[in-house]
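Sat 14:20. Reprocessing the chain from the morning session after the first attempt stalled halfway. Input below, unchanged.
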Amino acid sequence: MLSLSKKTDYALIALAYLAERPGRTASAREIAEARSLPAALLMNILKELQHHDVVRSLRGTKGGYQLAVDPAAVSLHELILALEGPVRLIECASEAEGCEHETLDEADDCRVSGRCAVQAPLQALHFRLVRFLHDVKLADIILPGRRIDVPVEMVGKVNAE
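Finished this time. C-alpha cells:
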C-alpha cells in the first residue's frame, strides 16, 4: 500500500497546528494533547523539523515551536525527504541525494531489472509521483483556507475501493 508514514503524517498535523496560530509558540506537549498524538514521538519529529529549519524552537517558560518557513515555499516532497529520505516507489527508480532532478538507479537486488516488462512505465509513474509531491506545497495541506479539500462524497468512494 502506498501511504505517508506516521512520521510525515504527525509532522503535517503539528505544522497545521502551528500554522493555525501564526506568531504564537506551542510546546510539543500542547500539540500532542490537542491532536491526540504520542508526545514522545512528536517531540522527536519536531526536533528533526527544527534540524531541517522547518520550525524554530524557543526556550524558556513561554517556549515552544513556531513555523520557520513559508509553507507556500516548501513542498511536500521536501518534507518527506527531510523526515524519511528519498521517495522510492519501486526499487529500480530512486532519487540522487542532493540533486534537483531524479535519476534512474537500477538496484542490484532487483532480480528482473532489465527484463521487466513494466519497468519503464513504473519508473515513469515514480517520477510523476515525485513531480506531484514537488508541486504540492505545505500551504496546500496545512494552511486554513488553502487546504486541498476533497468533496465529502469522494471520501466514501475512496474508502470503499
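The beta strands are 55-58, 64-67.
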